[in-house]
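Student: Please help interpret what follows.
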Amino acid sequence: MTRGSDQGRLRPAPSSVGAGKQRRMRRLFREDGRTLMVALDHALVTGRGPGYAREVAAVAAARPDAVLVTWHMARSGAGLFAQSGLVLRLDGGMTDLGTGQAGDVSATLYSVEDALAMGADAVIVLAYPGRHDEHHSLRRLAALCARCEQFGLPVVAEAIPGGWGQEIPWTVDSVARAARITAELGADVVKTICPGEPSDFAAVVEACPVPVVALGGPPVESEDAVIELARGVVRAGAAGIAFGRNVWGAADPATMVRRLEEAVHCDGSAAAVDHG
C-alpha cells in the first residue's frame, strides 16, 4: 500500500452533522457555488407583500434555487417550494403598523427544532453591527449559530450595518466589516447590501470568509437594471443574490426568475441552465 493511499484510509470521516450541513448547503447553492434566492418574507413586518395566488405561485413555479420565507409560507407552500431550497426566517416580532421602536425589540421567534421539523435547509436572522444596540442582534445571531451547529443546519446572517435607519453610513468599509463580523460569529452565509456600484461588492466578498449574497433593496427603476445589478455583483465575486420586491413585484415574476437565473449562473450567456 502506498503512503498516499494509507493516509487516505486514515483520514477521519466527516461527522453526521457536518455531512448534513453539506447536503443542506447544496440545496441552496449549485455546483458553480452560486444561488438565486427569492425573498418572500416582507409581509412579516409590513403586512403587505407577494400575493399567494399570483406572485408566490409564479415564483415557486419558476423554481429558483432557494426561497426565503415566513413560517406560514413555509407551512402552506410545502408542495409549491419542493423544488427549491427553503430558508426560514426565525426572527421578528415587530411591525411597521405602529409608530416604531427606538431600540431593537426583535426576538428569535422559532427554535432550531421548529425549523428542522418544517424541513428548512437553512435559517436566517438579521444582525445590525454598528447600531447603538448592536449587542441584541449579535447575541441572537451567535446563540443561533451555536445551536444550529449541533444539528448541521446552515445559518444565514442578514448583515445591515447600523440597521435600516443607517445609524452609520452604508459605505464599502462598513458593509465589508459587518459581513466579516457576522461570519466570525458563526454565520455560514451572509446576505447584505450592495454599497454603491456592483463592482464595489468585490471588497465585501474579499473581506468575508463565507459566501456572500447581495440583497435587492428598494424597487429598481427598470427590470433590465435589476438584471444588470445581479450580473454585476456576481462578476464582483458574490455567491449569488437574494432579491425580493424586484422579483415578485415584476410584471411577470416567473420570467424575472428565469432572467435572473441566466444572469447568476450563466453570466448572461446563452448557455442552458440545468435544473437537475
Observations:
- The first helix runs from residue 3 to 10.
- The first strand starts at residue 35 and ends at 39.
- Confidence is low (pLDDT under 50) at residues 1-8, 268-276.
- The CA atoms of residues 59 and 248 lie 7 Å apart.
